[in-house]
């Protein structure tokens, strides 16, 4: 996992965290909806921001696989490398 990609993704995710979740809670193993409490609407916003930031397209089946921060990074890295 590329630390740069992790930090960039973390900066995108933190915008959508609910008030009761700290940016310090974002870890590679964090589940986006269950642990970080990101709702489905915000998950779509995160995907759109990721696509813009990394200049990639994430397919619907890949969105379904984006359960954790690490799985999101793996999808990003497969497209940008």
From TrEMBL:
> What region holds the Carrier domain?
3-80
Annotated Gene3D superfamilies: ACP-like (1.10.1200.10)
UniProt protein name: Acyl carrier protein
């Amino acid at each position: 996992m590329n630390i740069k990609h992790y930090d960039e993704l973390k900066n995108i995710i933190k915008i959508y965290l609910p008030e009761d979740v700290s940016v310090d809670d974002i870890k590679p193993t964090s589940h986006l909806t269950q642990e970080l409490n990101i709702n489905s609407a915000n998950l779509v916003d995160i995907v759109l921001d990721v696509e813009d930031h990394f200049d990639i397209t994430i397919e619907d089946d890949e969105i379904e696989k984006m359960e954790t921060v690490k799985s999101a990074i793996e999808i990003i890295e497969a497209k940008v490398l």
